[in-house]
Structures are given as C-alpha cells and as structure tokens.
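Cross-check.
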Amino acid sequence: MAGLASRCFRRAPWVIALWLLALAGLVLAAQHAGAAYRDTVALPAADSTSAAELLPKGDTERVVITTTGTIDAARDQIEQLLRKLSDLDHVSQVVSPYAAPELVSADRRTAVIVVSFDAPADQLGPELAGELVETARTDNLTVGVSGQLAAMTVGAPNLGNAGIGLIAAAIVLLITFGSLTCVVLPVFTAAMSVGSALAVVVLLSHLLTVPKISTEIAALLGLGVGVDYALFVLTRYRQGLREGLPPGAALERAADTSGRSVVFAGVTVCVSLAGMFTVGMAFLNGIAITSAVSVGLTMLAALTLLPALLRLTGMRKLPRHSAPGRGWAGLARSVTRRPAPYAIGAVLVIAVLAAPALGLRLGVPGAGHDPPGSPTKVADTLLAEGFGPGANGQLVLVAERPDPVAADALREIVATRADVSPGPVLTVMPRTGPDDPATAELVGWLREVAGPGWHVGGAVAVQTDFSAAVTSRLPLFLAAVVAISVLLLAMVFRSVLIPLTAAVMNLLTAGATIGVVVAVFGGPIEPYLPVFLFAGLFGLSMDYEVFLISRIQEEWRRTGRTRTAIVDGLVSTGRTITAAALIMALVFAAFAFVDSRVVREAGVGLTVAVLLDAVVIRCLLVPAVMVRLGAANWWPSRRREHPAAPIPDARDKAGWIH
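Predicted model, tokenized:
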C-alpha cells in the first residue's frame, strides 16, 4: 500500500487527470447506452410460475377511471379513450367496462378498462409503458394504470437528498477536524468514486439482471464508505505530521496502516455482499455486484486519488486542535476500570431496539406504497375505493387440465372466503388488501383446497413465493456471511476470540437494526431488505472493528498490556470512529426522505446500524469485553501479558493526551 500511495503522491497531476477522464468516459458511455434495468424475479420452481405458464403470455394492464358523476355521463370521453388504447402498439384486446358489468363499481363512478398486450411486460419495454400511461391521461377524469408495464413508469427516487447529506457531513468534518482540507478531500474523493460507480451500474444493466433499486443502493453504500475510507487514511496522515514526519513519510505510514485497514474493510464489505449469491436469485446477485463495484471504487479512490489530492492541496502542516481530546481518555479509563456496567448497559440498549424484530413479516408491499401521484398509486387508491381493498391483489386459479365440473365445485369452496368469478380460470378477489397477512394466508389456503393439478397465480402469489424462497435460504446466507467475516478477521489479527466476539456483536447490531426498521415501517418488509442490511452491516462494521482493533493490537505489541493498549487505542481512534459514523449516518439519513419505500427502509436501517455499531458496540461494548478477556484476546499468540500498570495521564504542554 505504501508504494502505491507514494507513487500516486509523486504523480499527483496524472492520477487526478486519469480519474477525471475515467469519470467522464464512463458517464458518456452510460448516457449513450442508456439503462436496461430488470426488476423481474425468476422463480422457476414456484407454484405461481407454473400458473403463469398456463395463462396467456401477454401482459395485462388495468386502466382505472373515476368520475365526479357516473361513467354513463362520461361515456363519450371513455369511448374515445378506448379507441386510443386500441391504437397502441402490441395491443391485442381492449375490454370496455360497458361490455362487462363486473368492471364497473356499484356506485358507477369507477370503471376499469382491461388492456391486453401480445407480449410480456419485460419484452414490451419502458417506452411503450410511458406511451400507455400518457395515452390513459384524460381531461376531467382521474385515471390510474395498474400492472407490470405501468410499474416501469415509476421513476427512480430523487437522489438530491444525498447532496444534503454530504453538506451535513462536510459541516461535521469541519467542526471535528477544524480544517477545510479535511472537508473537501473526503467529500470530493467519495463523489468521484460514486459518480464512476453509478455509470458502471448503468453499463452493467446490459450484461446482468440489475434491478432499478441497485442505483440507489450503490449510491447509498458508496457515499457512506467513501467518506469513511478517505477519512481513515487522512487521519493517520495527520497523526504522522503531528509526530514530525515529512509529508511523504507520513503518507507512506498512513497507507501502510490505515490503508491496509481500508483494503481489508472494503474487501470485507464486498465479500459480505457476495454472500447474497447464496440466496440463488439473479435479482439479488445484481444488487450484490453493483454494490460491490461501488465499494471497490471508493476503496481504490482512497488509496490513489486521495494521496494525489494531498500533494495537490499542499497539506503540509496541521490545523489547530488537531490532537485527540481529553474526553476520550476519560471514557477509555472509565470503561476499562468498570467494564461490567458498560457491557450490561450496551446489551440492554440493543435488546430494547431489537425487540420489534420479533414481529418481522416479509413480503413485497403493494402499489399503495408507490410515490404519490404515480399511475400505479392512483390506480391502487381508485380500485380500493371503488371495488374493495382486494381489488388490486387479485389471484387466479388455473388448472393443468381444464374441467368445468371441477372448476364449479372449487368455485363454491373458494366463495366462502373470497369473491370469485366463474369460468375455467377462476379469478379470485381477496376481501383484504395485498399487504394484509390474511391475503398471503389465502394464497396458501387456495393451494391446499385446490389440490394437485391446480396452480395459484397473480402478483400477490408471486410476492408470496418470492418471500418464501428468500426466507428458506436465509440460514445459509447468514452462516456464509458470518463465517466469511470470522475467517477474514482471524487472518488479519491472528486471533480466535476477536473475530468470534465481533461476529456476535454484529449479530446483536443486526437484530437492533431490523427491530428499528420494523418499528418505523411496520410490515411487510421487502424480503431482500434484511439480506442487504445484514450483508452491508457486517461489511461496514468491519471498518470500525479493524480501525479500532488494529490500533489496540499495535499498542499491545508495543507494551504487552491489554488494558493500556485498549485505552491508547480508543483515545487514538475514538474521535475518528464516532465522527466517521456520524458522517456516514448523515449520508444514510438523507436517503430516509426519498419517495421510495425500500430506499427509506435501507436509509433508516443503515443510519441506526452505523451509529449503534460505532458508539455503543465499538466504543463501549468491545473495550469492556476485551478487558474481561485480557490476554485471551490474542490467543494463540505466545506473547505473555505484562502485569497491569497504572494508566499514565501524560499530557504535553498544550494539555493533549498522547
């Protein structure tokens, strides 16, 4: 790491120029290629997939209309709309509400036009989706569109809030480190790497199954860790300057210590994200790959672009108030002298936050959670008001070998729990909304009473099967991520207990994070969100674990006293860890206000995770547990623990503790 950083430092103009050219080239290529996101979830073994294979292959959309009077008074406008919809490309059939009474609400104020296409939605593409929604708009009528094609028009969340998060992070950097350079360099480094990563995500969408949400998740992780990684290297560089080293030597030592920690932390995040491959879904694989690309580029920027910027900005001396403050020494001594109360208090905080996780319910929220004003949200509202809460969660029962007699018998049974239409294919309308647990229970009940040869399909059935598929693979995923993290930490610290205790503490943090998300958002929670949060949390927490423990281990190797090493390590890293966590939390919190529910959930979850992990876990629980373990922390190291000595309170003339 030292050699790479040194070369980038000496060739600063070339390194900065290469980064700028790479960013410009990637952005231009992404703009030229355009995005090809795919939000489809492949479930080949699912019952809903079997049902879809027996149904017509074309997409079906519902255009929902409501009027201030009745649909009879607006017949001319509606019939004109019917003609326009019939003229769209790939439309095979348009069913008028005037020809099908079941498509008109009881008060005759709301009507549904069924538009059938000759191909699936993913083949029709977003351009036709936009034409459908635009065509459906009619003056003096409230119109919404429901279906897979209409869902493509729900735009990506506005990431403008990320800029607010970066501004807030910059203010924290300025207050904490008292230097404009310490503000500009981490923010600029993160912005360059994330900008490049987002362009790469667009290009990868042509090669992989990349869902639309990948852009937001890549930006979320990249901005958070990007500022952190740059800050870790910059902090160690400043420490070298404080000790009188020339800039080149200070940078080499920073790269050799904090730089290695950044590499390990970045690799751990990527490897933890790779654990999502154990779930076996291309949808999640796309999220994992694009997120890992974002983290990898931010790691590379911290090791190459940041050293070049340090040379260019001419940072040669320290600003005032650059040494660690007295408060961290007092906290460190207090925790190491009375570890039990701190450990108990930390565990109680985590337990309280984790309690709501017992009520976790996985599922894909319906269109009612789409952004306000979107065509799918409008359609969901109109359908619920005009036809009941289950109108936007219709299910279908389809037989492998149609039998009218068996269909009539099954229809009578199903009618006891839901509204059902006659015919060889039974259309079932639940009496509860798509997000209601009773609707998911209805799917299971239908599969039981229908028996072999019948299959249950529809959007809610697909969502239920998706949730079941993810849930069934969660144990393997959790075991893989925990095992990988433990092995990586064991390799770095040559210890057994340090990685094991870190894994336990990460599990505690994960439980508290999920608990807060459930408490704030209720249910259902997207099935892939706990997977992403768990993988991201395990990776991000390694930042602070490695940064703290590596410094403690340095001091232990120098002094041979664990308690003294803990105090010195916490004093040296405490301010940086908490400042980095606050900065990352501010960036994540900015995403909690976008108009996408899953991005808000991820923003809230990661905000809680980094603050809890940095403040409660790394600064309180980890030191308390390490004090209790003593020399066992470093087993199987053969070095003996030196007898405990009083912790010195050495201050220089300025009053700073070293």
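The first strand starts at residue 60 and ends at 66. The chain is about 65% helix and 5% strand. Passed to J.P. for a second look.
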